[in-house]
TrEMBL record:
One of its GO terms (biological process) is sterol metabolic process. Belongs to the cytochrome P450 family. The keyword Metal-binding applies. Keywords: Heme, Iron, Metal-binding, Monooxygenase, Oxidoreductase. Its cofactor is heme. This is Cytochrome P450. Coiled coil: none annotated. One of its GO terms (molecular function) is iron ion binding. It comes from the Eukaryota. InterPro entries: Cyt_P450_sf (IPR036396).
Length: 164
């Protein structure tokens, strides 16, 4: 997108507070109404109190000092996964995608449930996130375990106590 097109259209909508997310219904239902991705936001039009509160929590969690506190754990996970990659590549080559996915999931689990519990919950969290990702773009038909969206909703309910 050219900057002048952005300035003339998108930026004006954003400044007026009229730029709103237009996500598929299944995405909105899986994220929940309190997700920052589902909220209308504009610094010029003013943030809603709920958006301001959630945004503040996210910004505090991602502050450099907070992230640096987890540096040792991230290095430990990185070392372990690189060792796994090295041993897997002894036979010639090894795919990097599963290692990268495992890294992201391991770090997220450590941040969500704590370093001491992350290993215990990691397989369940990986399974739940896989179900949720499959359900995000599926038709929002909740038939429990018999539909992709239903399995995603069940996975969301499993994860809520860990995240909340």
């Amino acid at each position: 997108m050219r900057y002048d097109a952005y300035r003339d259209h998108v930026q004006k909508l954003d400044q007026a507070g009229d730029l709103v997310p237009d996500l598929p219904p299944s995405f909105v239902k899986l994220l929940g109404k309190s997700s920052i991705l589902n909220m209308r936001a504009s610094f010029h039009a003013g943030l809603t109190p709920q958006h301001r509160r959630i945004r503040s929590k996210v910004m505090r969690a991602l502050a450099p000092a907070q992230v640096l506190q987890h540096r040792g754990g991230m290095q430990q996970v990185s070392r372990r996964l690189l060792e796994d990659l090295a041993s897997a590549s002894q036979s010639g080559s090894a795919p990097f995608e599963p290692i990268a996915k495992s890294f992201a999931m391991s770090i997220s689990a450590r941040l969500i449930v704590g370093e001491e519990l992350s290993g215990e919950f990691l397989p369940e969290m990986e399974s739940c996130f896989a179900d949720i990702l499959a359900g995000v773009l599926s038709p929002p038909v909740d038939l429990g375990r018999f539909s992709t969206f239903g399995r995603a909703m069940q996975a969301r309910r499993k994860l809520l106590p860990l995240v909340g």
